[in-house]
Structure formats: C-alpha cells, structure tokens
Write a structure and sequence with these properties.
It is a single chain. The chain is an alpha/beta fold. The structure holds adenosine-5'-triphosphate (ATP). Adenosine-5'-triphosphate (ATP) binds next to strand 2 and helix 1.
Length: about 280
C-alpha cells in the first residue's frame, strides 16, 4: 500500500438547516485500501458518502476539506468533476441506479466509450468480459436485457461492473447488500472484494452491518450522531472494542454469528446447498 491517501477527509461538517448531521469527521483512505464507515441508522453515513461523491442536496451546508489525490473537491459537485476527481459509486437500490429503459449492454458500454475512447464493438466486448468476471451467467445474453429483467443480485453485480468500468481510484459503496438475501450478499461482497483487489481500487464501504464489513474491509471508522467515536483495524475493533457503541455493535453481531472475525481470505464460498446443509 502506498503512503499517500487517495481520499483525505478533514473536519467534515454538514448541516441541514440548524441540524448538524456530520460533525467534525476526519479520516483517510489509502491506495487500494477498503475501509468501512460503520454506524447506526441516522448517524450521518450517507451524508458523508454523498459529500465525497459530490451529491449533497442543495439544502446542505458543508465545511472542512475533502481531498482526492490532494485536490480539494468539497465544493465541486459530481457533474463538474474532472476525470482525476471522479469517484465511482454503488448504491443500495440497484433498480433505481440503472436506467430502466436502456439495455445492460448499452449502459455498461458508456464509460468505456465516453471515458476510455473505445469503439462500440470493443466496448461491448469489454462489457461482456466484465460481466463474466463478475461471475454472471451467459453475459452475451445478459447485455441485451433491461434492468427489470434481472434479479436484485445480478443487478447489483452489474452496478459493481459499471463502477469498475469507470476505472476510478476510489469507489464508494453505500449499503450495497442491505436489500439482498444472505447468499446473494456473499456473492456481491465477494465481487466487490475481488474486483477492488484486482484493480487496486480503494473502497469506502458504508454500512451498519458488521458482518458485511468484516468480510470486506481492513479498517473501520465508527460514527455516532455524525462524530467519529473509534477507528482502526477492523480485527482490533472486533476483538477489543473501546467505545460503548462499538462494544454493543460487536456483541449484537456475535449473538447472531459467533465467527465474526474471520479474515476475508478464509471465507468459504457459500452456496444455497451449503446453507441448507448447515441449517
Ligand atoms: N432532508 C433532510 N433534512 C433534514 N435532516 C435530514 C434529511 N435527510 C436526513 N436527515 C437527517 O440526517 C441524519 C443523517 O442521515 P444519513 O442518511 O446520513 O444517516 P445514515 O447513517 O446514512 O442512516 P441509514 O443507515 O438509515 O441510511 C439523520 O439524523 C437524518 O434524520
């Protein structure tokens, strides 16, 4: 891992009217690193993600600093970002993230054509190869379908493929597995892990789910009511949580799945059959 952060957030403050929804948040994401922003519902995770993406609502006032490769981007909305400061994104709702009227193929081709200058033919080949790498069955047929013709898990892997096609150095994934069943969650987390590893893409993973975070991330920033309460290597936070909220989070996660701290590399490849067998 190189020593310069890809993303550097300093004293981030976001207000909606008089309410502070993010209050003095600071953290770094290093090159190729996956970190999670972990907190309860309403703790300010999505506002932080949207500030990094340049997607804050007009009603929000923002202060502090967000640097991508050293360039200040806090006041630059997504639409005005240059190539070097673009951030790829994956959202919870894959159906609304994709254009319902356009084929999967035409949506996946767009970044290859627009940002990487490929011909339509080469872009289609690249799109098919990317879907194959996402372990999606029969990608040649899949590219001809529209989003509504796919399952939630297939669609979310298309969204990850779309984010990877943008070839940015940072990806933000906001609760990408929350709406999925456990088997599909594991597939999507594996796709995120393998592809960010392969492309050395840094990941800011937004979640309230410690299990999902433990499968994907090396480091965590824990927030409560818009403030950072604890941060560090995820393994250390799981084995020796310091803050009350982190302790509660770990205890609650252990109560549903005791083997929480398994390293990502050791995770089994779950199939529906395995889960049924172990039930
Ligand atoms: N449009 C809005 N106007 C005023 N306050 C808002 C608005 N949208 C969200 N909030 C408040 O901002 C705070 C942070 O919201 P945010 O969506 O960032 O939380 P979160 O941690 O992502 O929650 P979740 O896990 O439920 O998505 C919450 O207290 C929420 O009530």
């Amino acid at each position: 891992m190189c020593s310069d952060p890809v993303l550097s957030v300093r004293d981030l403050r976001i207000q909606i009217g008089r309410q502070a929804v993010v209050d003095g948040l600071s953290f770094d994401v290093m090159s190729g690193e996956r970190i999670c922003l972990l907190g309860a519902s309403g703790s300010g995770k999505s506002f932080t993600a949207n500030a990094v993406l340049g997607l804050l609502p007009p009603a929000a006032t923002v202060q502090g600093s967000i640097r991508l490769h050293g360039r200040e981007i806090i006041a630059t909305p997504a639409a005005r970002r240059i190539n070097e400061t673009r951030v790829a994104m994956v959202f919870q709702d894959s159906l609304s993230a994709l254009n319902p009227l356009a084929s999967i193929g035409s949506q996946l081709c767009e970044p290859f054509i627009r940002h990487h200058g490929l011909s339509r033919k080469k872009a289609t080949a690249a799109a098919v190869a990317l879907l194959e790498a996402m372990k999606l069955h029969d990608p040649e047929r899949l590219v001809k379908r529209t989003p509504a013709e796919l399952s939630g898990g297939q669609r979310q892997r298309v969204c990850i493929a779309l984010a990877m096609a943008c070839k940015t150095s940072l990806m933000v994934a906001d609760e990408p597995t929350t709406a999925l069943d456990v088997v599909t969650q594991a597939q999507v987390l594996r796709a995120l892990r393998e592809h960010t590893d392969a492309a050395r893409t840094a990941l800011l993973f937004i979640t309230h789910d410690l299990h999902a975070a433990a499968q994907l991330c090396q480091r965590a920033v824990i927030i409560e009511r818009g403030e950072m309460i604890e941060s560090g290597p995820l393994d250390a936070l799981i084995t020796a949580p310091k803050h009350r909220f982190t302790r509660e989070l770990v205890a609650a996660a252990h109560s549903v799945q005791p083997s929480l701290a398994r390293p990502a590399e050791a995770l089994p490849e779950y199939t529906p059959h395995d889960l049924l067998q172990s039930a």
